[in-house]
Records
---
Amino acid sequence: MRGKIKNWYMSSNLKQILKQFGLNEIEIKSYLAALEFGPAPASFLAKQAGLNRVTVYEALKRLSKEGLIKIRAKQGNKIKYFIAEDFSVLREKAEEKKNEMEELMEKMEEAEPELRSKYIKKEEKPEVYFYEGKEGIKNVLIDTLKQPSDESIAFASADFLEIGFDKKFLESYWEKRTRLKIPARGIMPETESALKLFNEGRNRRELRRVKFIAKENYPFKDEIEIYGDNVGIICMAKGNEHGIIIRSRSIAESFKALFELIWNM
């Protein structure tokens, strides 16, 4: 029983090795039959492998081209005998593959700077989406809840926020952001409506932190949302409401750096 288990294990290992050389199931069975019973004609090997004779014959011819099977024809006899090459041939082929892979790795290391530069250029090509009208600009805020982001940060204006969006939409948006546990930070001009709308209690409930700046020096009229690898810009000018979403890691990182600079001043 132990000998059978050992033979099965060795056969299983051989199959895995042969698969690594790109052999299919029929070629593997044909090669193993020739290894065990050869030299023998294709009809005999096919019987041992439990396969069709023509199928095995074609597989053995392919293996011969790969250098894994040699064919012997006896003088005065048209029957061809197939013989599996010694295991050392597989070892040599494995060495060849190893050397090819080592050469490939060296070439990849040499080409890596160029490959990375091309990949980055492709990756960083921005996507830009444009929206018009009061309903259109809502899509910019909604997008901040859809994209992967650890935090949503914004340059905003409470006065123009109330003008641009109806109260019901804003309340629903803030509720969803809180439910999704996406924290927010905002920089906005210090106005009476801003202090009232974004009071300390509400900010705490809605996972929001706000820094107010002098309205005389920073009269924001539009909103800039930075979230993940995206920047959303909303213009709330009456009659010309429009929004833009830019998907670009580098642009988002630049806006984040600007935001942090002002936040930490």
---
Amino acid sequence: MGEPVFYLGTHEPGWLARFSVPLFVSRRRLARCVRLPRAAGRWSLDSGGFTELQLYGAWTVPARAYVAEVRRIAEEVGGLVWAAPQDWMCEPIVIAGGRIGPVTFAGTGLSVPEHQRRTVENYLELRARAPELPFIPVLQGWKRDDYLRCWALYEAAGVRLERESVVGVGSVCRREQTGQAQSIFEALRPLKLHGFGLKLRGLERSAHLLASADSMAWSKGAAQRGNLCGQAHPRGGRSCANCPRWALTWRAQVLDRLQGSPQQRLFGRAA
């Protein structure tokens, strides 16, 4: 396995043209752009699935439309390493619906096995429709054994995950403090894993188990803590939630902290 890659999550598509560090950008943001930026470095595409299921309780974008969007993005932006499929997250709140603070979840009303089946079927459809596009398989579940069963679904469909350059692991970003995410990653060895939406605690626990990870924790933290970069923001913003200076500073701090970890395989300075 090569050196792990740390993708800085951003909801600002324009950063693709401004920064060469690896970025993670949502399709929901890029799809709104009349004119897409040209990437200055490598990056990967988030499908926006969590927001899709949170708002609607289902995917409202047909697979053929998603393929068309990703094809346009890949051709016009360039530098795309991989794109997430239209997977189905398995958090209980996503399935049952409800509220977390001010955020309302519509609820899918389905089961974890059904979410897994739809995740695998979507990957197969995307691959069949556009074999030239870099869609990756994603494992979904809630308990550790759920992910192993999802792995078996791919095997049954003829997809050898051990041969894939990267395999996404979903529904882990809110369980880092308990060590559940690390347990799941360990169970999925020797796959080359991507951890979606990890925070610093999760990165510290699991960086040695991953081929890559992404995080937007810099933005969420800044929204609560105000101005962290010490400089004025465009349009008078009071916090650093959209601030590139703070995002890059935070990224450097995270990589420095990970380099000081006792784990042996960590995200390098260039990643």
---
Amino acid sequence: MLRPIFLFAMFVWLFALEGVGETLVVRLPGRESADDPRLAYFDELLDLALGKTEPSDGPYRIEKSRLAMLTHGRGSEFLKRGGRIDVIYTMTSIEREREFLPVRIPLLKGLLGHRIFIIRKQDEARFAAIGKLEELRKFKAGQGHRWPDVEILEANGIAVEVGRSYGGLFEMLERGRFDFFPRGVTEAQGEAALHAEQGLVVEQTLMLVYPTAMYFFVNRENTSLAGRIERGLRQALADGSFDRVFDKYNASLLERARMHTRRVFHLQNPILPAETPLGEANLWYHVPD
């Protein structure tokens, strides 16, 4: 007859084995707009990171919530409370790093802070004539409600008109509510193409540059998920698979942006957290001469 202590040990062993095979479900917000081209890249990077760690950390499954990707909307609130949303990807700021736990690997290699403009086609000559930041300050920029860029632009003397929704900003630009829509160099081309019928184009001569990063963020208590994502991203950086995904989505956009030919205006970022890993050169994109 089996002794009670042996039965207890077998029970504990079987219970532990049961836990090993559990699937980690990672829930993401849905798209704010059906036409929003920005998010597929970040979805693939998250899948890459979790896949790199699957042998050691177990299986996973990524699910999309019906909640829209609203940076300071319902998605963020559910992330903060620890329910229904597990990961968001957004631009860092001191406030956001207080609210959420960042995975400090810049997903766009800092290129979110390299801003070119979507403008009305009839304004191309006006912008091409700008030679100094002081001249750009005569124009009004458009940004989304509670986007960190609002504070950055205003701190650098650029007036900002705020829109309530991502999609609505293009309509506001078309109607002349503001003059230019600063977008990351990996965002502007696709967005302008989607709104070409509204007479919107990518401005070809200017670029704003300020230090910032797009990160994955998780609930502040979910240190295990943050650690798994960081380990996976660092493995992907080391073996080159991060760069392959980056190039797949961004290489042609960067070529078309022709950053090296533009007049660059450097801005200060007063909301950049001190912990931003600016010293890790391999994490950042370096514009070729």
---
Amino acid sequence: MKIYTKTGDNGTTALFGGKRLLKSDPQISAYGTIDELTSFIGFLIAKITLISDKAFLTDIQKGLYIIMTSLSGSPIQENLLRKSVLKLENKIDEVEVKLPKLTHFILPQGNEITALYHIARTVTRRAERETVKHYEKAKDSKSKIYALQYLNRLSDFFFVMARLYNKKEVLARI
């Protein structure tokens, strides 16, 4: 089977169930940005060495695929996404106790891993904005709640991880 179907040559793409939308539709933009984020997380996984962080990021990719599945028109797996939100919150809490109190804005810089986490954070925020645009016109409020909670927590997770990896570099230099 060939990878190309030529069905999108007119600027449309198919959703789950066969419905076609313009590739510029907010729904397509939302899941396209989440797809971009999952690929970027794959790049981040390739750069970090800590196995537990790689595993956690892989779980995040799976959570994002749940959201993409929903955005493609398939029913959302609410229970899995709800559990994923709780996992993110627990991980954020676990990391935050290792960090100094935040008293000022920080620049998105530091070592390579810190910068990659900051980029993941900003791509997540864009995915969140695109998803909000889609849900402004969508009827499914349950999907909206869990998807937006997940994306919001995810950007917070990437922020604390950027701070953690920056702290690790500073401590390594002392």
